[in-house]
Each structure stands twice: as C-alpha cells, then as structure tokens.
Amino acid sequence: TWEQKPDNTMSVKLRDLIRSVRGCKTAAEERAIIAKECALIRTALRSPESPHRHRNVAKLLYIHMLGYPTHFGQMESLKLIASPSFPQKRFGYLALMLLLDERQEVLMLVTNSLKNDMAHQS
C-alpha cells in the first residue's frame, strides 16, 4: 500500500494507512507501521512548503485516536489556522481541538489566531 519515493518520503493516503493498521496481526506490527509513518510525517512537516500539510495532519489525528503521541502536530495545526484557505483553517481548528490541552504554551497563539479570525470580515 505504500509507495516509496526517491526522496525517502512516503506517499500513503489516510485510507491506505487505515487499511494497513487494520490489517495488522499483532500490536508490534501496528506500532512499527505507526512509528514509520510518524517519522515520515515529521520529515514532511519540516519542509517549509509542504503541499499536503492538511493530509499529514489528518493522518496525525487518526494516529492520535489510536492512542499514540502526536504532540509534534500542534505547530502544524497552527500553520493550518494561519492559512488564508478556509478549508485548511477549518481543519487546523479541528486538529487543535483534539491535539491541544490547556497546559500548552501555544495556547496564546491559538487565542490570538481565533480573535483575528473572528474579527475578519469574511
């Protein structure tokens, strides 16, 4: 289900990730798939102009729902919120709702972004 690209990034859709995880026979196999995907997501998120940032955050939300740590996705959610695109902004707020808790330092940035969005005309 995974296609290996020459630049060592994985082209796996959320649907393929779900199929792979559901097809695991053991918990160790699941952990290996999740660890590999998280590492590749981290690598992709380091790219300043990631065209699939929202897809990677969607995969992080799925991984979070499985109970694995996804704290590294918080800043990506903030980047989605800062996007001028409404669908990406909406997805960023959804991701932050799930990934953020009240003890995080980025909470002030979220508050400022929300305040700016609420004051915006459109």
Number of helices: 6
Please summarize the sheet with the most strands. Answer: 2 strands, antiparallel
Structural class: mainly alpha
List the uncertain runs.
1-9
H/E element sequence: EEHHHHHH
Number of strands: 2
Sheet-strand content, in percent, reads under 5%
The helix fraction, in percent, is 55-70%
Euclidean distance between termini CA atoms: 41 Å
Overall body shape: elongated
Radius of gyration: 15 Å
Name the strands of the widest sheet in spatial order.
1-2
Mean pLDDT: 83
Description:
With 122 residues, this protein is mainly alpha-helical. The chain contains six helices and two strands. It has a two-stranded antiparallel sheet. It is elongated and about 50 Å long. Residues 1-9 have low confidence and may be disordered.
Entry keywords:
122 residues, mainly alpha, disordered N terminus, 6 helices, single chain, two-stranded antiparallel sheet, 63% helix, 3% strand, elongated
Quickly describe the structure.
The chain is mainly alpha-helical and 122 residues long. It is built from six helices and two strands; from the N terminus they run E-E-H-H-H-H-H-H. The protein has a two-stranded antiparallel ribbon.
